What we know:
42% of the residues are buried. This protein starts with a strand and ends with a strand. The protein is α/β, with parallel strands linked by helices. It contains five helices and nine strands, in the order ββαβαβαβαβαβββ. It has helices at residues 26-39, 56-63, 76-89, 101-104, 125-134, and strands at residues 2-3, 13-14, 46-50, 68-72, 94-97, 112-117, 139-150, 162-170, 173-180. It has a single domain (2-17, 28-180), classed as Vaccinia Virus protein VP39 (Rossmann fold). The strands form two sheets. It has a seven-stranded mixed beta sheet with strand order 5-4-3-6-7-9-8, with helices on one face. A two-stranded antiparallel sheet has the order 1-2.
Amino acid sequence: MTRIVAGRAGGRTLQVPRRGTRPTSERVREALFSRLEHLGVVDGARVLDLYAGSGALGLEAASRGAVSVVLVEAAREAADVCRCNVGALGLTGVSVAAERAERFVEHPGGPFDLVLIDPPYDVAEPALADVLAGLAGAVAADGVVVVERSSRSPEPTWPDALARFDRRAYGETVVWFAEPAV
């Protein structure tokens, strides 16, 4: 069972697609958002959630005070689940883009204060590097980019526009944090 950890929708259950996604565990989401709230980048944020799956990360941000969230998910079933979760939670300012992350970053809009990227483990590093490079102009000057990967995956290849500032490990999950380079 996947549920929202805290905020206005805290404790509410989320639907998850039957296959093809790997929802972030509640423990990792709780630790991640604790870190993000400490950094001051959730409340009032404009959030982009790439490879959204069920939408759990972006919806967690909306529950905790983000003013706008874009959930980007290419798989039709998962995008439908995102829409269902948005409707069930009644959180405002959340939209779903049924599009591949690689294509979305060609015209990402923004600027986003927080970008959450949790690609399937089988997304190759060069493809992830292209997505990160596509975000270069879409991240606010004081924004944060978060990449969640398997502990067996190498560190993402950061474009010159982004600089890693932290790494946290939670069992088999590693979370990388980056910000616009100075």
